[in-house]
Each structure stands twice: as C-alpha cells, then as structure tokens.
Amino acid sequence: MAGCQELCFNVDHGYLEGLVRGMKAGILTQTDYHNLAECETLEDMKLHLQSTGYGRLLSASEDDLTVTLLDSKLRESLLAEFSCLRSNALPPLSTFLDYITYSYMIDNVVMLITGALKHRDVAELLPRCQPLGAFDQMAAVGIARTPNELYSSILVDTPLAPFFQDAVTETNLDEMEVEILRNKLYKAYLEDFHSFCKKLGGATEETMCPILEFEADRRAFLITVNSFGTDLSNAERTVLYPACGKLFPEGLRLLTTAEDHEQVKAVADCYPDYKLIFGEPEQGSDFKTLEEKFLEQEVKLSTLAFLQQFHFGVFYSYVKLKEQETRNIIWIAECITQRQKAKIHNYIPIFQDRK
Amino acid sequence: MGTLLRGEEMCLAQLFLQSGSAYDCISELGELGLVEFRDLNPSVNVFQRKHVNEIKKCEEMERILVYLLREIKKADIHLPDRDVNPAAPSPKNVIAIMEQLQRLEVELGEVTRNKERLQKNLLELTEYTHMLRISRNFVQRTAEREPLQVHYEEFPFLEKDTAMDYNSMQRLGAKLGFISGLIQRAKIEAFERMLWRVCKGFTILSYAEVEEYLEDPDTGEPVKTVVFLISYWGDQIGQKVKKICDCYHCHLYPYPSSNEERNDVVEGLRTRIQDLHTVLLRTEDYLKQVLIKASESVYTWVVQVKKMKAIYYILNLCSFDVTNKCLIAEVWCPVSDIPKLRRALEEGSRKSGATVPSFVNRIPTTDTPPTLIRTNKFTAGFQNIVDAYGVGTYREVNPAPFTIITFPFLFAVMFGDLGHGIIMSVFALWMVLYENNRKLKNTRNEIWNTFFEGRYIILMMGLFSIYTGLIYNDCFSKSLNIFGSGWSVNAMFKAGVWTNEVIRGNHLLTLDPNVTGVFRGPYPLGIDPIWNLASNRLTFLNSYKMKMSVILGIIHMSFGVILSTYNHLYFRKKYNLYLVFLPELLFLLCLFGYLVFMIFYKWLVYSAKDSRHAPSILIHFINMFLMQGDGVPPLYPGQTGLQVFLVVIAVLSVPVLLLGKPVYLYWLHNGGRRLGMYRGYERVRRGSEEELYLLRGDDMEEGSSHSDLSSSGERCSEEFDFADEFLHQAIHTIEYCLGCVSNTASYLRLWALSLAHAQLSEVLWAMVMRVGLRMDTTLGVLFLVPVFGLFAVLTVSILLVMEGLSAFLHALRLHWVEFQNKFYSGTGIKFCPFSFSLLPSSFEHDGLL
To answer: Which family is annotated (chain A) (predicted)?
Structure first.
C-alpha cells in the first residue's frame, strides 16, 4: 500500500513537489548570510538580496528602504509562493496546505483581539498580520467580547471553527484569557493536524509527525516555563498541553507538577532530544535563549524533511524555513539600522553544511 | 587557416588608463570587443568597490526605464526602430539624462496618479448611481407590499415589520437606520450570514445584483458586484453593522431619505460623471503625448544606460597604481589585435582630451591564456560543434576545420538519399539566402533558432547527402538509371542460358556475369540501378556498406592520431612523437590498417570468374590473431609470415606506449638533477644549478608554458611524480588499445544507420505511395492526391527530421568520441571579450523590448 502511494504520488503532487524543491534551492546560503552581515546600510542589503533568489523584489520600490517595508516585502514574496502552491494543489495536499495556514490564522486572531483590548485601530493592526493567515472575517474579530461570541458570530464560518470546541467560555476576554485561548486553539489545531498526518500515512506521516510532536512538546515546555510567576494554576495549565507530542502522557504529567525551571529541566532530561536543548551551553559558545534553541531544533527538523521524497512534509518545512529566513533577514536588517554589529551573527542559519 | 587550426596567439597586457580618460577608453574598447578584463580586486566585496555609487545610479535609471517601458507598453505605443547604436554617454551627459528621466518619471507618476484618482472617482460615482437606481426598487417593492427579494424565513415577523412604512416605525419609537452600498458578489453570502449572527436579526438585508461588470479599483479586473440595503434598529446595531461592512470591504454610500432627494442626487451625479469623462479623456490624451515623446528616445537611453553600467562594472575590476593617478587594468588580448588596442586607447584619450596618453604594456605570464578561435558565419556552426565537446586548450590543434568536411560527409554516409538531400539543401539554401531577413533572425523560437544557427551545416549535410545518394543510387528509395545499366538480360537469352520455359518455370532468375555480354563493365557512378530489381540487393549493399564503414572509420581514426603530432611538435614534446604517437599509429595500422588492406585486396584480386573461391576476410582476420591459418588457402604468398610480423609489432608497441613516456620522463628528471650536481661540483659555483634551471626553463618556455606540465623548469622538476605519470599513461594505453577495437566497431553505425534509412524510405514507398499508384481507374488520380500528401508529410517528418536528427547525433558522436579523443583534450577556457554587443539586456529578459 505504501509503495502504491509512492507510485501515484507524482500524478497529483509531483509538479508541486518539484516546484517546492526548486524554491528550496533559493533559500539563502551561509555565504549569503555572511555577505548580508557585512553590509553597512540597508541599501547594501538590497544590493545583495538582488543577487539571490529575491531578485528584483526590492528594487521596484521607490521609497526609502525600511525594516518594516523589507518585512512586508519578504512576507509578500512568501505569500505569493504559497498561494501559487495552494492554487495548484489537489486534495489531500490542498487540505494539508490549508492546515499550514491555520496556525497563522490563530496568531492573527489572537493578535487582533489583543489589539482590540488595547483599543487599537483595526486598520492599523491589519498590515501587521501574517498574510498567510489572512481570512475574510479578520477585521471583524474586534467586535467579539467573549470567546463564545467570537466563535458563534465571527469564526464559525472560518476553518478555525472546529478548534473552538474546547475553547468556548463565557468569561470576558482579557489578556490572560486571550493567551489561554491561543493555547487552547493551538492544542486543538496541533492534535487535529497530527491526526490528519497520521491518516495520510506513508512518508508524510514519517516526516510530519516528528515535526508536529516537537511543536507540541515545545508548546508544552514554553507554557510551563512562561506560567511561572503568573496566576495560572497547575490544573489550568494541564488543559493547555497538546496531547500529541513525545511527552504525552508521562512527561506532561510531570510537567503539570513542575514548579520551577529546574523541575522542567528534570523532565526534559528524560528525553534525549530535549535534554540537549535544556542542557548547559558549551563553554565558549554564545548564550542562547530557550526559544532560540527550540527554533534551531525546528530548522534542523525541517531540513531533514527534504531528505525524503513523495511526501507533503516538504511544503510545511519550506514554509517554516522561509519564515525563519525572513526572521533572519529582519534580524540582520534591524542590527544594521540600530548599529548593533556585535549581535548580527545571532541569526539561525539554514542548511549550514552546504558548500 | 593558421588561426583556425590553432586559435589566436594571446598575451596578457596591462593597460595604464589615465583616470580622466579611463571611462572613454573602456567605452571605446567595449565598442570594439577586443579584450577580456581580469578582476584585479577579487578580495574586495562587490559593494565596497569604487564605482558602486555609479552602478547604483545606473540601476536607478534602469528602474525608471523599466517603468517607462511598461507604461509605454500599457498605452500600446509602438517603439521606434532599434537600429541606433549610441555611444556610452560621457559622465557629464549622464546627469542630464538622469534629470530628464527623473522629470519624466515625476510627470508620468503625477499624470498616472491623477488618472487613477479620476478613474476611481468615476467608479465611485458609477457605483453610486447603480446603487440609487437599484435600491429604488427595494423601496418600491416594499411600498407595493411585495415580498423582499431576500428575507429570513426563520423570522417571518420581521418581514411584517419591513412592510410597515417609516412613519409607523417611528411611532413605535425605534430608530430606523439605513446603510447601503456595494459588495463583491462572492462575498455576499458570508456577509449576510455574519450580519445575521452578529445582529441577531435586528437587521434586514435586501440586495440585488448589478448587471454590469464594474472594475475592481485594486486589481483592475472586472467583478460582479451586488447592491445591498441594510435597515437596522438602534445605534448599537448600527455600529456593528458598519464594522462588518468595513471588514468585508463594502463601498458604502449615503442613502437618500426621500424620493426627491434621490432624484436630485441622481441628477447631480449624472452631470458630474459627464464632467469626469471629459477630464479623464484630456488626461489620457496628455499621458499619451508624454509617452510618445518618451518613446522616441527611450531605446537610446536603454542602450546608453546599459553601456554605462558595463563600463563602471569594468572600472571596478581595475586597480589603482601607487600614485593614484592612473588605473591599471589587466587584459587578455590577441597578439594581432594589439595595434588595434593601441589605436582604441589613443582614440579614447583624444575624446576625453587627456594630456597624458593611456598605453598598453605586454607583460609575461605563466597563466594559461583563454582560447580564441576567430570564426565567420560559415565556420561558426562547426566550431560550435567542437566547442560543445570542450573548448580547445590554448594553441591546441582545433578539429573544427577538418570537421567542416568530415562531419557532413559522415552524416551523409548515414543519410544517403538523393531526394532527401535535395530537399534538405534547398531548405538550407533558403535559410542561407535569407539570412539577413530580420524576421528569420530575431525570432524567439528556440527550435527554429537552432536550425537557423546551423544553416551552413545543414546546407553542407544536404549537399553531401546528394553526393552519397548518387553513389548509393537512391532517390526516395528508387534508383536512377542515368547512364544505362551495365548488365544486360538480353545476353542471357542470346547465350542460350535462359529460354522461355526457364522463365515460366522459375520465380527467381540469376544473371550470370560470366556469360559474355551480361556484364558490360561497372556503372560509371555508384551502384548499378539494376540492383534495385535484385532480390539479393540487401545482401550486396550490406556487405558493401559494412566494409565501407570500416574503411572510413580506420581512415578517420588514423587521421586523428596523425593530427596529434601537430600538438606534440608544437608543444615541444618530441619524445611524445616516438613514445606515444608512433606506437599508437603502429598498433592501429598493423591490426586494423591490415584489415583495410585485405578488404581492398579482395575487391581488386577476385573478380566475377573466381568469386566462388573468394575467402572470408573475417576468418583470415581471426586466424591472424590465433597465429594459425593452415586450414584455409592463403590470400597471397607469404601471408602467414607477414601477419605474424604485424601482430608482433602491434603487441610490442603496447609496452612501448605503456612504459615509454613515464620511463623517459623519469630518466629526464633524474638525469637532469645528476647532471646539475655534477656541474655544480665541477665549476664550484653556487648559481650553476639555478642557471641550469634557467637554461632548461628557456628551451621549454615556449612550449611548456601552455602544457599541463608547468611553466618553468624549476616547478617541473619539483612536481614530477613517476607514479602519477605512470598511472596516466596506463589509463591512456588501456583506453587507446581497447578503444581501437571498440571504436572501429563503433564506425559500423555508419552502415547500420544508412541501412535503416534506406529501408525506412523503401517501406514508406511500398506502404503508401505504391498503394496509390496501384489504382488504375480515373478515381486513382484523385486518390493519389491525399496519398502523395501523406507520403510527403511522412517523408519530411520521419525521414528528414527524425532520421536526420538521429544521423546528426551519430555523426556528432563519431566526431566527439572516436575522432577527437585521439588528439583533442578540450580543456581550455573560451575567450569572452568585453563587448557591448554581447551584453545581455535585462529589458529583453523581461520581455519589454
């Protein structure tokens, strides 16, 4: 059966897989980053990016280059690539690609609600949303007062609706509640995506499940670590843990009882993958935050997806890598504009050992 | 011929360019395309070089030009002729051009913005009129107490409410509000749902589609839109409704409260729309004028900016001298072009009015120069065939001049058909005659361009095919009887061998050449046409073509081996002549040359009379290797002795080939050092060793500077590695000796392809044409028309195009593998001069020009 899947894969998805692998070749290399880091001004960066896959993306703009402009241009280019993939996709790949956008939609919803709570104008917030997760009803999100209202009047038509099943409450939305909402949504989303990938089976399952499991565990860890010092109780925390990761169920139970960073570390020590992340930094290397380490690990996992063929993981990985690349470029650009040359090398390189 | 055989002699030259005139000098060089610049600052980052700002400025200008071209294209204005070739603008003029461009851009931008604003305005007004016109129906309908077009079934009481007139609503104390506008057709359903969910039914939505397509202001695409009217109760709901409208990007327009107001507004809108139309028309006119003016000089600007950018790019490759007063550039230049180069520099200095002239200085170098082989339109195609395998090493023998003859010939051996050859050469001749036609030249069709580039090759191939077609006596698989066959059937009767009974009784008859008068001597040109009737034609032709392929192959390969002597002599490696060339040639000729000899011997010695005793060459050849031959009668006296002698020589040449060169080099290397030490002792002078190296370096300089060994004697002696050399030679020996066998066999493809071609064309004739010709009623004439059409199409598509391509590929292989590996290394780098005409244009790439 598995062999049959590989036989027929190219009939429907071969073109897009080829396309995405071609796009992957355009991801900036170590030398590109090296050159970018040597730039003095944003104009120099523009010159350099011209020689990469971004080409004339920036040259057409007449205005002065700013980091915000750069950011939006990079996002636009990713959106253009993604929508090209999406519009050519056939099921089940199209569903898979939709799943990728859901996480961005969740982020957008949460950001808009937070903005509305702070009485910011929607028009001001919209450009800052991740365009990959844009949907029609986005601008109306601010109307809602409670998660229930949010669900029943606005999001019920969106693909996010199924994730709301657990998240519907009548309490008023405040910042804490929004964070809880985000995590609940994410939990539902990750579990759903995970089971979807499981259902697809074959190489997709083999590549995607580890990535999603890692994602789930990362969320569990981060929720725990971030909950220290807030009035989020242990029991409330437990509800938020996505139950599809490697930590499930034993690790999550341990995490529930964790009270400080050391205890979290003790939990991580039981899992070789996470032991490294929580481990002490090596002598001589720069200090990295937990999130950076997680991001590094994510990049590593994503690059692994390209080693196999005939699966959908490459699409997910490509989007994630491209997102990381955008973050890297923005980081370098920020360092350049703020003259923080010392920190410029803190980006996370993709495809390190490629020459 | 000399340069075509070996390529141009190149030299490294230093250009000292006065900083004032450097720009003009390089511009002059770019027009001529004489030299290839070398990067003198490879360590400097791209954006840290000197003229980055100028390049940025050029890019800015390019951006404006792209914008201009796009606008011109959008306005459908024809670009004027592109034959102008303006020189690169002087730095002073650049500012003027820049200003001009910027002014144009600002002007255009303003006008376009204006136009867009007006268009948007117009669109809004149109939308408003549509809205008013359509929403009037809603009110009328409600007034007539007709059910609304859209209503909520779940809330029938609401319908009742809408039916009430406004006065009664107001009397109820609720504040009735209206919001009306337009929304895209695709979004209306979601909009409606959301409206209902959020407002819990405190609204009524009625909508109707606009019949026309309205333009979407963002994308400019025509979209179907819907006019809607929301009636709501209360301010709270109103706020929410407005938000939802925002979120769905509705275009909202004020809803007139009474009929009179509505009429007024409609009236006002009509006049405003008319006004806008006239203004818009004027703006478009003006825009067009601006663009037409710009289009006149836009191509000149494009060329100028392109040249300027290239010049600055080259200037970035140059380095400054110590005094900072002049730029130094290093260039590869053909030796014969140096006077031209000098003149160009003088011209450049004169143009810029520099007081100190720029000058050229040849510098010695140990680097291998790039290869330049000058071609004309005829030889270019053949040179391309060779270059596709590998660009010749500097000053190596170039196979292209020989390819001009051998390539079409080998092709034609496989494609031998007079008729097909004529069609092919007529097609090629047409391309050659109309080669200056712009329409043929400037197409973007890649397949067509391939054919067009190779038009001379195709012409030669066609002509040679005509020749081989005559030799094979094949014209669309039929034979031509021009001179009258040399065979006579009549004579068989006269001699009494055949009688009428014999003819009636036998299906097949054999002509006997031994009967007098039957065979009157060979046909003057090629194969006798009588073979076309013979049933053993194929056997005869196979034997003939197979032998011919082997003969041609051996000649071709021996020629390749002989060509290698030119390389050995030119690169001053005389030892290669004795240690490589000679054993190679002996091996080839003793084994396969002898085979050719036997073929000729058999052809010449055995005639029709004793053809029964004609021996099999194959058996003799095999016996030659087995050193036995007692069973079969010898071809000629002393055959066994000669054969043993030849085999021994061939076998002996293998170890010579294998060991000769490495051992000799080893001896040279060791002997040289011993000699040096010996001299050192004798003269007791420290410099003697050095001197010796210099001496040796001297006599090797000319040759070895290009060879793969190394540039000077010193390095040569240090880098010599016996094992390495031996390994290379061993590989070469094995490759050559095995290659001789397999390559000879490989030439049999000449026979195979020629057979395939002949058989295919015969099948085509038999299956298609003959069917048409067999019908002998009057209808048959009509039937012949489609049959001939089919025959012609199949002939062109299968026999000419497909068979031609396959024969082309096989000829290509025979040249690349079988011929060129005997002498051609092809490891050079092509000389690519800095020339404006060779620069790619980014505009063409974008399809703007």
So the answer is: Belongs to the V-ATPase V0D/AC39 subunit family.
CA distance A211 to A294: 12
Residues from chain B contacting residue A44 (CB–CB below 8 Å):
47
- Terminal Cα-to-Cα distance of chain B (whole angstroms): 39
Residues within 8 A of A (CB atoms), B 412-471 only: none
pTM over 0.95: no
How many C-alpha atoms does B590 have within 13 Å on its Cβ side?
A: 22
| Under 8 Å between Cβ of B528 and B485 | yes
A245 contacts A217 by C-beta, under 8 angstroms: yes
Phi-psi bin for B324: left (phi > 0), alpha (psi -120 to 50), beta? left
Cβ of residue B187 closer than 8 Å to a chain A Cβ? yes
B47 at A interface, C-beta within 8 A: yes
Euclidean distance between the first and final Cα of chain A, in Å? Answer: 38
Q: Which residues have C-beta within 8 Å of that of residue A53, sequence separation ≥ 6?
A: A23, A25, A26, A27, A28
Q: State whether B197 and A154 contact (CB < 8 Å).
A: yes
B59 in contact with chain A, both atoms CB, cutoff 8 A: yes
Tokens 């009428």 belong to B500
Q: How many CB pairs under 8 A join A and B?
A: 49
Closest B-chain CA to A50: B59
For A149, the closest chain B residue by CA position comes to B198
One pLDDT digit (tens) per residue for chain A, 355 residues? 455 677 888 888 889 999 999 988 888 888 888 888 888 888 778 878 877 778 767 766 656 778 888 888 888 889 999 999 999 998 889 999 999 999 999 888 888 888 888 877 777 888 888 888 888 777 777 677 777 777 777 777 788 888 887 777 767 777 778 888 888 888 899 999 999 999 888 888 888 999 999 999 988 888 888 888 787 777 788 888 888 888 888 888 888 888 888 888 888 888 888 888 887 665 555 667 788 888 888 888 888 888 888 889 999 999 999 999 999 989 888 888 888 888 888 888 887 654 3
Nearest to B464 by CA among B405, B384, B402: B405
State which H helix or E strand residue B781 sits in. Answer: helix B779-794
Q: Kindly state the DSSP code that residue B256 receives in the 8-state scheme.
A: P
CB B749 within 8 A of CB B831: no
Q: Among B67, B106, B114, B126, which Cα is nearest to B284's? A: B114
Q: Is A148 on the interface with B (CB under 8 A)?
A: no
In angstroms, what CA-CA distances link B122 with B182, B249, B269, B279, B626? Answer: 15, 18, 10, 11, 99
Beta pairing partners, B326: B18
Cβ of A152 and B63 within 8 Å?
no
Which run of H or E residues covers position B604? helix B594-605
Query: Is any Cβ of chain B less than 8 angstroms from the Cβ of A122?
Result: yes
* Residue among B45, B47, B197 whose CB faces A153 most closely: B197
Pick the residue of B59, B61, B192, B194 with the most A CBs within 10 A to test the interface with A by mutation.
B194
Neighbours of B740 (CB within 10 A): 20
Yes or no, beta carbons of A139 and B187 under 8 Å apart:
no
Cα separation, A90 vs B24, in Å, equals 59
Q: Which residue of A has its CA nearest to B65?
A: A60
B773 and B807 in contact (C-beta within 8 Å)? no
Report d(CA A22, CA A143) in Å as an integer. Answer: 43
DSSP B16-66: EEETTTHHHHHHHHHHHT--EEE-S-TTS-GGGSTTHHHHHHHHHHHHHHH
Distance CA B488, CA B520 (A): 8
Q: Which of A59, A140, A156 is the closest to B59 by Cβ?
A: A59
- Per DSSP, the three-state class of B615 is coil
